[in-house]
Amino acid sequence: MTHQPGALRQPTAEEFQAVQESAEFRRLRSSFRSFAFPMTAAFLVWYLSYVLLSTYAEDLMSREVVGNLNVGLLFGLGQFVTTFLLTWLYVRHANKSLDPVATRLRTELEGGV
């Protein structure tokens, strides 16, 4: 099998291991985890709070804020808002901190353009 121009080469297991043990890969993993774990925990707490309040704090959740708009509905809509917000924050973090490093590591490992 001949190597075609622009084709990526298949790295060896030893090369993968070397990249995983590199300081740059450890920083990449740490950057991902330092963002993903706290945000995931915060969102799960927020979501679980909504579910528990909906179940056990009916008086609070049914309290009207404006017209027919009550606290429960605001919390529910807030779930959508926070989902989009977290997605936007993650994309921004990935574009700035994760993707450039991951692309550089991948290019070094696989070659290519």
From TrEMBL:
<keyword id="KW-1133">Transmembrane helix</keyword>
<keyword id="KW-0812">Transmembrane</keyword>
<protein>
    <submittedName>
        <fullName>DUF485 domain-containing protein</fullName>
    </submittedName>
</protein>
<feature type="transmembrane region" description="Helical">
    <location>
        <begin position="35"/>
        <end position="57"/>
    </location>
</feature>
<feature type="transmembrane region" description="Helical">
    <location>
        <begin position="69"/>
        <end position="91"/>
    </location>
</feature>
<dbReference type="Pfam" id="PF04341">
    <property type="entry name" value="DUF485"/>
</dbReference>
<keyword id="KW-0472">Membrane</keyword>
<dbReference type="InterPro" id="IPR007436">
    <property type="entry name" value="DUF485"/>
</dbReference>
